[in-house]
């Protein structure tokens, strides 16, 4: 079983990827275009974090079709990717007040 040392959260929209990397209690943020070039820049940015691929968990909401290309690029590069149902995320937030 792998140990997750860092989490990458991505807020996906038609034009942008707003990314947060949480590791060791610190957050690093980045904003990139939601395009093939942006996806490549994301992979390079994550690589600079020095975490092994199996030590990272990447999570994003399923936003129409806009998340599909970046989720596929990350998965094809060997990252563990979770795509959350936005209704579930909203429901969890409401349950936490």
Structural notes for this entry:
One of its GO terms (molecular function) is DNA binding. It comes from Duganella lactea. This protein has 97 residues and is of the alpha/beta class. It has a single domain, classed as Nucleotidyltransferase, domain 5 (2-Layer Sandwich). Helix 1 crosses helix 2.
Straight-line distance between termini: 33 Å
Q: Please state how the strands of the largest beta sheet are arranged side by side.
A: 3-2-1-4-5
Number of helices: 3
What structural category arises from helix and sheet content? alpha/beta
The number of domains is 1
Strand/helix succession: EEEHEHEH
Quaternary organization: single chain
CATH domain class name: Alpha Beta
Shape: globular
Which ranges are low-confidence, i.e. pLDDT below 50, for 5 or more consecutive residues? none
InterPro entries: Transp_IS110-like_N (IPR002525), Transpos_IS110 (IPR047650)
Protein name: Transposase
GO molecular function, one term: DNA binding
Pfam family, one: DEDD_Tnp_IS110
How are the secondary structure elements laid out?
Elements: E1 6-12, E2 16-23, E3 26-33, H1 36-47, E4 56-61, H2 68-76, E5 80-84, H3 86-95
Parallel strand pairs: 1-4, 4-5
Antiparallel strand pairs: 1-2, 2-3
Helix pairs in contact: 1-2
Can you summarize this structure?
32% of the residues lie in helices and 35% in strands. By secondary structure, it is α/β, with parallel strands linked by helices.
Q: What structural keywords apply?
A:
Transposase; five-stranded mixed β-sheet; Transp_IS110-like_N; 3 helices; globular; single chain; Nucleotidyltransferase, domain 5; alpha/beta; Transpos_IS110; 97 residues
């Amino acid at each position: 079983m792998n140990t997750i040392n860092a989490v990458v959260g991505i807020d996906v929209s038609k034009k942008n990827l707003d990314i947060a990397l949480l590791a060791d209690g610190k957050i690093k943020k980045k904003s990139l275009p939601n395009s093939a070039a942006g996806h490549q820049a994301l992979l390079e940015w994550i690589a600079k974090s020095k975490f092994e691929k199996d030590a990272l968990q990447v999570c994003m909401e399923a936003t129409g079709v806009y998340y599909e290309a970046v989720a596929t690029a990350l998965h094809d590069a060997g990252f563990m990717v979770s795509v959350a149902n936005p209704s579930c995320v909203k429901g969890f937030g409401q349950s936490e007040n």
